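Sample entry copied in:
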Amino acid sequence: MAKYLLLKHYRGAPAAVNDVPMDQWTPEEVSAHVQYMRDFAARLEITGEFVDSQALSPEGTFVRYDGEGRLPVTDGPFAETKDLIAGWMVIDVDSYERALELAGELSAAPGAGGKPIHEWLELRPFLSEPPTITE
């Protein structure tokens, strides 16, 4: 089994087919989308392929250790992940092909008008071992 991260983006990925921002959806469309996600996760729980998932709030703060007693540093040339990452799901599957299949299915969650979003999801494998460093 291999773990994969399915990463949902607010922006930064290619545009979805049904590219209406969620804040413009009706409450019923939002509910249908959330229910699709729950049903998808429930099916994967039955097969043992679901690990965890979370939707993320758009609020967030950058924090960095900058020495004893210093305040967090928040400025710099960093991507604002609160503007980029909408949520994630972790799956544990038998193959890369299965991970692709599930990512494709999750991409079809309904959006505006009840039509599938066909959003792009980022599929990333977890490292199974620390990388080997050679110098």
Q: What stands out?
A: The chain has a mean pLDDT of 84. DSSP finds three helices and four strands in the chain. Residues 27-47 form the longest helix (21 residues).
